[in-house]
Amino acid sequence: MKQLTGKAYSRARAYVLNHGLDLDRSLFTFRSESGTRERVFDALASYQNEDG
C-alpha cells in the first residue's frame, strides 16, 4: 500500500479541513488527530431526520 508523503498529507489535511463538510472534518480529526467520538456524533446528528 502506498503512503502519502508528508507534503501530500499536509495538502490533503488542509483541503479536508478547509473544504470538507462538518462530518468529513470530524471523521478526519477522529481518525487522524485524536478527535472525539462525541464530535462525530454531533456532526451526524445534523443529518438525522425529525422521525429519527
Task: Summarize it.
By secondary structure, the protein is mainly alpha-helical. The protein has three helices and no strands.
Structure annotation, total helices: 3
| DSSP E strands, number | 0
Task: Give the overall form.
Answer: elongated
Q: What are the low-pLDDT stretches, counting only 5+ consecutive residues below 50?
A: none
Record the SSE blueprint.
Blueprint lengths: L5 H14 L2 H11 L4 H9 L7
Helix pairs in contact: 2-3
What do these coordinates show?
The protein has 52 residues and is mainly alpha-helical. It has one domain (6-45). Helix content is 65%, strand content 0%. It is built from 3 helices and no strands. The chain has helices spanning 6-19, 22-32, 37-45. The longest helix has 14 residues, at 6-19. The protein is elongated. The model has no long low-confidence stretch (mean pLDDT 95).
